[in-house]
Amino acid sequence: TSIPEQSTRTVKTHCPYCALQCAMTLTVTERDGAATDYEIEGASFPTNRGRLCRKGNTAHELLKRTGDRIMAPLVQERAADGARTGAFRETTWDHALNVIADRVRNIQEAHGRDAVGVFGSGGLTNEKAYALGKFARVGLGTSHIDYNGRFCMSSASKASTLVFGLDRGMPFPLTDLDDACTILLLGSNVADTMPPFVQHLDGAREKGGLIVVDPRRSTTAELTADGGGLHIAPAPGGDLVLLLALANVIIEEGFAAQSYLDSRVEGYAEFRRSVSHWWPERAQATTGVGADQIRAVARKLGHAAHAARHGGDPVYILTGRGVEQHRDGTDTACAAISLALVLGLPGARTDGRSRGGYGTLTGQGNGQGGREMGQKSDQLPGNRRITDPEDRAHMAQVWGVAETEIPGPGTPATQLLHTMGTVDEWGEPKGVSALFVHGSNIAVSAPDTGRVIRNLRSLELLVVADFFMSETASEADVVLPVLQWAEEDGTMTNLEGRVLRRRKAVDPPSGRSHASPATDVGPRSELWIWHELARRLGSPAEFPVDPRAVFAEIREATSGAAADYSGLDWDLIDAGHAPYWPVPSSTLSGEESLTGEPVVGTSRMFEERFAHANGKARLTALRPRRQPVPVAGQLTFTTGRVMEHYQSGAQTRRVDALRQVHPEAVVQIHPATAAEHGLDEGGYAVVENAQGSMVAKVEFAAGIRSDTIFAPFHFPGQGTANLLTRGLTDPQSFMPEFKNTPASIRAATAE
Ligand code: SF4
């Protein structure tokens, strides 16, 4: 017998999870050409500087899992009454794709082309996000495509577009934060969600300038201890008023950067008038933050920004989902940007030194690229507007179709999911009758998941593409097995707007076995799936399967657009460069960065002008909605993440080392509130409201407000936090309100 040959290969790539996109090396051990083991190590890159969090460190476990990996297309049986039975039958790709194409044709013939909807993801590579938008619009011919980024980035994205004229989450390199003397961080628990980020807060922390705004004393808020800075705990929903009150003090006490406002900003007078109503004593009642504390923070920011305007260390204002996932999330993000403008920070330099600015911390791995590739219901690639005749004509030319073949704007995510499969009083569909879901687990992550699951069960056709049997996939008529992170090539755009290479390191499983010897099985790329479906549906457009060819098309599609990728070069990115968009061809010259790494594209934005036609940033009046009067006995329920899990947990709940630390749903509550409700630490509680209820293990947290309870949203079944969240959305961004839900809590009894 011959001894199997062993070899190792090392592949440079980026983490499969969050938007920090930490660089890593994945070492693959092979015997006779088959992968037998994997090792992950952090690699040098400015965002992570060699560090990884627990999720990144264990990401190779996903590649090892075979037991619950979907190995062949699956079709779910239906009972005589039409209900899905839960019994899945393996089939070939040819059969599965024919079933889908036939059913799509029948549904569209009966109800029109818009009867089919598509739900995408901020986890897809740029190439897949782009191809999915194209597949929806000119493969299926539907206007109804939206994606899970609507649930995470839409408010900050809308606010940046309104105020700056362009949406790049961080319009400066992350490493700029290292020099800061003061950072106001609102609604983000980076110490748990993206731990390697924390090193960029160290500079401000050492200078006592880290100000964390969070109703919980989160791991990030703890960083302000021992002279690191300040923690402010407003009531959920109070952030907008808090920001307006900070602006009020800054303006009233003469800290506004008047010459910057005169030359670079319009609308200051309206904004100033609107904040004049929010003096600290008035804001105290809404925010739950003392007037003295509001004044102290405003003065700290004012002095720091004044120093930055005279060559001192920079000042940054950063927001996360905590302040954005509200019904006034767009106004709140606008208020944070406005505050930075009043302080004279964004895009400004003194003696060649940046004064600071505003940034939002994108969450999902490709949350930035995913939102500019055309998955949004109102947007075409490059952040082009779907209602703009010039943008439509450009895309029609790139896609090789008539402009009239590109549908108009569709329905934003929450409305799409809350109306799908439902009928009006005459039995006519109120929403789509068929849904494609790619890279998303909406049965856990969407607001009001009880309603979402009921609607999924009423659809005539549900197609889910995934690599594990997620809670959403288990509802599907057809499940399509797809490739996971290290099994295919592509590009991602991180939270700074840098375009990175995600590399293939291993071959996907073949899907063949003794029991199932068919060759037409095994996971495939979505690019191939959309190519095949578009062909079967008679699409007039071409759908390339090679990611490099799709990337070339993205360059053409985004040429001249706000998010311009046209000057990017696959080989350049492949060689390890990570250019910042926009990269129009003319800027592809490169400069040497401090780390010696060549920088291509536009690392710092708005230095000369903002992106509105007149080059000015646009301030407007901001008027907070009246807050509902709290009902006696009710608490405010808010959701978020823990270090060990990512999004709906569909991947991280399958990694033993992560699941062991956080195996189940928990609810954090102040010990005094727990005592009032008869709850013991480690016992179980029912959290409930008119929407639904969840059961979770009680965790005492002395640092949470006594009127607030918190649950992570990573868990399925009765631990699903989103059973309680509602379908209320921000009127400008359509972002659901995940962070401010009335609920009550009681001890769970053994039933
Ligand atoms: Fe991955 Fe984000 Fe953790 Fe970095 S911080 S290792 S990108 S999950």
Give the low-pLDDT segments: none
Rg from alpha-carbon coordinates = 25 Å
Count of separate structural domains? 3
Question: Largest sheet at a glance?
Answer: 7 strands, mixed
Question: What is the terminal separation in angstroms?
Answer: 61 Å
Structural class: alpha/beta
Average pLDDT works out at 94
The bound ligands are:
iron/sulfur cluster
Q: Please give the share of residues in helix.
A: 25-40%
Order of neighbouring strands in the sheet with most strands: 5-4-20-19-18-6-7
Second rung of CATH, namely the architecture of the largest domain? 3-Layer(aba) Sandwich
Number of strands: 31
Percent range for β-strand residues: 15-25%
Describe the global form: globular
Which CATH class of the largest domain applies here? Alpha Beta
Q: Please, how many helices?
A: 25
Q: What is the CATH topology descriptor of the largest domain?
A: Rossmann fold
Keywords: 4Fe-4S, Iron, Iron-sulfur, Metal-binding
Region (Disordered): 352-388
Pfam family, one: Molybdopterin
InterPro entries: Asp_de-COase-like_dom_sf, MoPterin_dinucl-bd_dom, Mopterin_OxRdtase, Mopterin_OxRdtase_4Fe-4S_dom, Prok_molybdopt-oxidoreductase
What does this structure look like?
This protein has about 750 residues and is an alpha/beta fold. The protein folds into three domains: about 75-150 and about 375-495 and about 515-560, Rossmann fold; about 155-365 and about 615-620, Dimethylsulfoxide Reductase, domain 2 (3-Layer(aba) Sandwich), CATH 3.40.228; about 635-745, Barwin-like endoglucanases. Helices cover about 30% and strands about 20% of the residues. It has 25 helices and 31 strands. The strands form nine sheets. A seven-stranded mixed beta sheet has the order 5-4-20-19-18-6-7, covered by helices on one side. Strands 27-29-28-31-26-30 form a six-stranded mixed beta sheet. Strands 10-9-8-12-15 form a five-stranded parallel beta sheet. Helix 8 (about 220) links the parallel strand 9 and strand 10 (about 230). The protein is globular. The model has no long low-confidence stretch (mean pLDDT about 95). The structure holds iron/sulfur cluster. Iron/sulfur cluster binds near residues 17, 22 and 53.
